[in-house]
């Protein structure tokens, strides 16, 4: 039986409960055919085939039950349509709602008739007696099911869809344009259909998958002390320094502003880099959880989302340490979820500890079955603005949650309007609290709903004096830049240097020049270096084993490293600010750190490296802001960043947001051949060109994991078996995988089952131990 989940304002509780009863009863009706029963006896050996599929027949039955039950309701056609589509697509991804009117063919009708005629209805009636009792009252009149009755339903289905199609096209509530006279989105109600449908679809998906894989799991209320982070701070006392005094002051100020939660649900924390934002945000979130629990009787799930995979582990490990101080262990308390997360889920302690199978663990982790979830922007936003079955299964778990969006400025400007309206809808209709955390607060929320400031940002930015930023936008090639800093590097044995470039090629070129100028090791970081080596090098940098590092902008993605001097090739203002966060983070040096902004161009001097990867609008805005600045103090940065984001929003591509908002409004989940945008066009990470994944057999561990991968591919014929086995090695496997852009004429290693493979015997041909994959003949970013 499906649970109605947590109360939401866009569903009448009674109607929602009745819909869920119908979905629960009907969604597996098609499994009554002998074709499916034969398949399920041995799914690893039996191929399903069209006759063994059950979703379409189940959808027809669900549609008929909903149509009969809701006859006379104002939204009867909509409710019946939602039931039909939810059941039809509960084992796949969503399509455009309008496509559902066109995809019931004569072949589908013949197939369903054959399925129905194969069912033993006398046996079915006996088997389903317990389920019939759970149907909404009044539906018993449409029972019992007979072959003749279902044949009529099937033969009438195309006409039913034609009628709904006509209603859908004429439905003013759905068809009203999202864009008003001032090019601003119109009333909030236009997102109702999207949220209504996804909510019941998500509940169905979660119940269906849980019934099969994780029946014994139940979420229990867990008491989490509101003083949890306070205790952690006491246990790990910050040394008394000027910067730590500011950290403590900010922490207490944010904590003391909990009373603002009586006035709203949208908050923001804006603090300079290195000011302890993460601990302060968690402390506020736990206190807010306690407050909402007391007021509503429902424990909110805390979802902490970050834009970069590189900082997930760091954030998760800190939180795990915090939880363990209270004796809170197990994945029902805390999980991390991203595409490389370990498929391991445990709950309980000692003799009562339960360890779930890899398949069940994957279901629990992907379903966010935990009190606190640490995840990525991709996982969160592709749940909010989604069409994939695997993501939408957890959509209903967002209700009554506390969502912390760390480094929110990483969200592309073109999606700001989209994010604002979707997040505002959740706040107003799903009892969601949102906490925005950043050192560079973008202007995402405008109009009536402004975030409550949890901390006086100006006070802290105004007192920061850790760095001086020098701006020199005179165009130089990489070799000219290297020549210009030779003198600076001499006699600077006590200083550390970080050089950040926009492309792998420019970073490699400078690295090869730098190693000739300094007589000591230089760390090189880019996505062309396998993750295992990158992680080791970052650890060594933190341990001060390198004084020089050359990197692409991947180090700006929350990587907690610290240098005395940073050089950053020209980039948008928010990226420059992130680079500045790698300089004198703790303010421990005798003098201020120095961040140098330079302007590198290719050898022909016709195009900058920045222009290869960033859009011209953001670069032009930054250039205007920095023009004639020469020297900038840290205390000035907040005003410059505010100015940048204001210009960025004014000049941003709002049309992309509006087109996606219309797709949500029209339930156009997959654009297909439709020229209008679909929800599937939403991409937080947009690939540049064709890319290929390459496995590098770098060491003994890589050799072993590749052999395991080969064994899986060659000996697991069933897709689901292959998938389950691969999940157990996926994290280790991807430690040796790099993704590169493919250019014409590029020499690639041989391919095996979707991965190019560099064996240990080919390393010299394809992979340099310092610089990573050979990208000498093409440009690549990061």
Put the structure in a nutshell.
GO terms for molecular function: ATP binding; endonuclease activity; helicase activity; hydrolase activity; metal ion binding; nucleic acid binding. The protein is α/β, with parallel strands linked by helices.
> What's the total number of strands?
22
- Fold-level CATH name of the largest domain: Rossmann fold
Our measurement of the CA-to-CA distance between the termini, rounded to an integer number of angstroms, reads: 48 Å
Uncertain runs are 175-183, 185-189, 777-782
Individual helix count: 31
The CATH class label of the largest domain is Alpha Beta
Family: In the N-terminal section; belongs to the CRISPR-associated nuclease Cas3-HD family.
GO molecular function, one term: metal ion binding
Organism: Desulfoscipio gibsoniae DSM 7213
Domain HD Cas3-type: 1-210
Structure description:
The strands form five sheets. The protein has a seven-stranded parallel beta sheet. A seven-stranded mixed beta sheet has the order 12-13-11-14-15-10-16, with helices on both faces. The chain has a four-stranded mixed beta sheet with strand order 18-17-20-19, with no helix packed on it. The longest helix has 24 residues, at 147-170. Helix 23 links the parallel strand 12 (522-525) and strand 13. The model is unreliable at 175-183, 185-189 and 777-782 (pLDDT under 50). Helix 3 packs across helix 8 and helix 29 runs antiparallel to helix 30. The chain folds into four domains: 13-213, no CATH class; 228-452, 3-Layer(aba) Sandwich (Rossmann fold), CATH 3.40.50; 465-636, P-loop containing nucleotide triphosphate hydrolases (Rossmann fold, 3-Layer(aba) Sandwich), CATH 3.40.50.300; 691-773, no CATH class. The protein has 782 residues and is of the alpha/beta class. Helix content is 44%, strand content 12%. The protein contains 31 helices and 22 strands.
